[in-house]
Amino acid sequence: MLPSTAINGPFFRVPAIFASIHTVVAAESTRHGGVSQWPFASLNLGINTADDPAHVDENRRRFFDALGVDPDRFASSHQVHGTEVLTVTGPGRYEGYDALITNEPNTFLGVTVADCVPILVYDQENQAVAAIHAGWRGTVGGIVVKTLEAMQTAFGTKGSTCYAYVGTCIDETAFEVGPEVAEQFAAEFKRIDPYTEKIYINLKSANTKPLVDFGIPTAQISISTFSTVLNNDDYYSFRAEKGQTGRMLAVIGLRS
């Protein structure tokens, strides 16, 4: 798999897997460059936080302007940690979906995260994209598989012509879970500390496997090396900041 080395922008990083594909706009925001005050400092892009809405609006304006995207062409959903997938035919704000897919040019999809995994997919042959929000519930519920199957049904997507990015999230060293959560994950994604007997889950690996199983070559998958917890100075972490924090956006779309 490719390293996640990214091009740094003022407010975001571009996953290396998409950097040379000029028709694709893809980025993962950081927490830098905005106007929000503590505890949302500073580029909080989450509209469902307790931040000043005017600050979030300004942060979003800065982010989209730096990305070269018209915010009126943006599509997102109020996420519910589920597995519903929406085929987007135009920009707007939707309700109850954790994955969005489209083949409409100049319609940019986004998911908000602050520990959960953002996954971005580009189908080069059929010119389609997906933005996925995978928390632990969505992960065990198979949201990546359901999204890829929805792309296959809607656009004829197959793995061999896809490129994917598994984004910045809570890392395996920090994602401690109880046995009731751990039992829902395959053994290959669990680590039990031999001294404390605490259980940890690797969400990046758990969401990479269905990409590979779908047939996406490992050379066409990039995984972020960053952690929302270990790199909390650059990214928001709901867990590390005890729920009082902002949100990042992971965005993907096709330029016409």
TrEMBL record:
InterPro entries reported for this sequence: Cu_polyphenol_OxRdtase, Cu_polyphenol_OxRdtase_sf, Cytotoxic_necrot_fac-like_cat
Catalytic activity: inosine + phosphate = alpha-D-ribose 1-phosphate + hypoxanthine; adenosine + H2O + H(+) = inosine + NH4(+); adenosine + phosphate = alpha-D-ribose 1-phosphate + adenine; S-methyl-5'-thioadenosine + phosphate = 5-(methylsulfanyl)-alpha-D-ribose 1-phosphate + adenine
The protein's name in its UniProt record: Purine nucleoside phosphorylase
Keyword Hydrolase: yes
Entry keyword set: Hydrolase, Metal-binding, Transferase, Zinc
Superkingdom in the source lineage: Bacteria
Family per similarity comment: Belongs to the purine nucleoside phosphorylase YfiH/LACC1 family.
Native source species: Fibrisoma montanum
Pfam families from the UniProt entry: Cu-oxidase_4
